[in-house]
Every structure is written in structure tokens, then in C-alpha cells.
Amino acid sequence: MTRSLFAFVAVALILLSLPSLAHHAISEIYDEGRTIAIEGEIESFLFVDPHTMLHVRVTEPDGVTRTWAVEWRAAARLERQGLTAEVLHPGELVMVCGNPGRDPAAYRMYLLDFEPLSPSRSPRPGADPAVCRH
């Protein structure tokens, strides 16, 4: 009985640790010491676990349009905070503040805050991160 209980506990601990082995630290991918802001149109909003993803089409100051991949918390965690898959929709204009990716060519960000923009307002290239509320 003691051996089988020990084996059960050992297997349970190993299985419980597997998800944490696959998870990455935010600081490995994103520069938590910097905050940037972008404004653009939502291409897609994927309300999923382990990370919600937002894709935002941004026109840069040089006129080039790029799609930013914006990573957010898990859907389950956001739901506990009262947010649902209906909070953001493709086609909406949004300002997003967050930590930029360590590779500038990847156009990635970890979302800290967002603000819907009025449909009558055009997104500004090179949004000012000083407007971020976090």
C-alpha cells in the first residue's frame, strides 16, 4: 500500500510539472523594462489558453503597414477578471500598450493595457507610450 501510494504521488507530481516546463518566462521574449504604444486595426482576436493573442495592423510613420502579434494572459485568467471573447473584435480600432519583443523585427508585444478608439478617429503612427495607464 505504501509503495503504490508513493508511486501515485510521484507520477502525479511529474504530470503536474509538465505544463510549467513548456511555459516560457515573459522576460525571455519581451523587454519588461520598456513600454511602447501602437494604434491600429484589429485583424484577429484569439481568446484561447495558454495565451490570448491579438493581431493589430499598424501603419508605421514611414507609411509601411505591419501586423503586430500582441500576446496577452490566458483566456481563463481574463474571464476571472470579467473579460470575455467579446471584448475585442476584428475591424475595431485600438491603442495597445505593452512590452516590446526583444527582436524588433518580429513586431511582437506583451499587452499591458488597451483602449478602444473611436471609429471616426484615424490611428496615429508612432503612438506615444506616455498615454498608457498601467
Query: Which range does the strand content fall in?
Result: 25-35%
Topology order in helix (H) and strand (E) letters: HHEEEHEE
Major sheet characteristics: 5 strands, mixed, barrel
How many beta-strand segments?
Answer: 5
State Rg.
19 Å
Q: Share of helix among residues?
A: 10-25%
Sheet with the most strands: spatial strand order: 1-2-3-5-4
How far apart lie the N and C ends? 53 Å
Mean pLDDT: 82
What are the segments in which pLDDT stays under 50 over at least 5 consecutive residues?
5-22
By secondary-structure content and strand pairing, the structural class works out as alpha+beta
Which helices and strands occur, and which strands form pairs?
Blueprint: H1 2-22, H2 26-29, E1 36-46, E2 53-59, E3 65-71, H3 75-80, E4 93-100, E5 108-116
Parallel strand pairs: 3-5
Antiparallel strand pairs: 1-2, 1-4, 2-3, 4-5
What attributes characterize this protein structure?
globular, five-stranded mixed beta barrel, alpha+beta, 134 residues
